Amino acid sequence: MSIAIAIDGPAGAGKSTISKAAAKRLGFIYIDTGALYRTVGLAASREGVDPGDAAAVDELLGKIKVGLAFNEKGEQIVLLNGEDVSGLIRTPEASMMASKISAVPAVRAFLLDLQRNMADTDNVIMDGRDIGTVILPNAKVKIFLTAAPEARAKRRYDELIEKGMDVKYEDILEDVKQRDYNDMHRDIAPLKQADDAILADTTEIDLEGSIDLIVKIIEENA
């Protein structure tokens, strides 16, 4: 029987990096659900689709195929109609569009079956905003991974600067706070800690320490 681990939390909490590393240590498959929503958001941006236009979103969903795969280096990548868009979906603009597009019921339904099918067939660690509350309510272990907005903004700023992007910390912090508000106040599956989720606050913990913490929680509860 497969084991599903649900890791939820706000934007910039390091869910993707930490979940990916934890999955590698434990021999699980990592599923980055945020990347799936970002990819739909990228498609909407390219086509000039307004997330508030239900008809346009439905038409868009009928034209795209989103999936996860592995490249020649063994790294997980996200595909949009066969194109590797992994590097294009990590900008602040992509983050904001993902927040808007993920609130659209049709988009959530579009990706729901894909996510659940993955969890039914393999031992997985899946991260996102509503994995433990909506996508995998029966997950073996649920974790709510978070950190203070300032810490999350600094981590994202450092990441983008390292990639050579021209960004300002103040803009990243404002984006993080706005994303938090949007995610927590949306009508469909708002961001919240599941009643049976274990809180993991990494504000004062470095990356390796955060990975150790998540692995420890999973090993003690799975």
Number of helices: 9
How far from one another are the termini? 12 Å
What is the structural class? alpha/beta
The H-and-E topology, N to C, reads as EHEHHEEEHHEHEHHEH
Radius of gyration: 16 Å
Helix fraction?
A: 40-55%
What report would you give on this structure?
The chain has 222 residues and is α/β, with parallel strands linked by helices. The strands form two sheets. A five-stranded parallel beta sheet has the order 2-6-1-7-8, with helices on both faces. It is built from nine helices and eight strands. The model has no long low-confidence stretch (mean pLDDT 92). Helix 2 crosses helix 4 and helix 4 packs parallel to helix 8.
Q: What are its keywords?
A:
222 residues
Outline the secondary-structure elements:
Blueprint: E1 4-8, H1 15-26, E2 29-32, H2 33-47, H3 54-61, E3 66-70, E4 76-80, E5 83-84, H4 92-101, H5 105-121, E6 124-128, H6 131-135, E7 141-146, H7 149-162, H8 169-185, E8 198-201, H9 207-221
Parallel strand pairs: 1-6, 1-7, 2-6, 7-8
Antiparallel strand pairs: 3-4, 4-5
Helix pairs in contact: 1-9, 2-4, 4-8, 7-8
In short, what is this structure?
The protein is of the alpha/beta class. The protein has helices spanning 15-26, 33-47, 54-61, 92-101, 105-121, 131-135, 149-162, 169-185, 207-221; strands at residues 4-8, 29-32, 66-70, 76-80, 83-84, 124-128, 141-146, 198-201. The radius of gyration is 16 Å and the shape is globular.
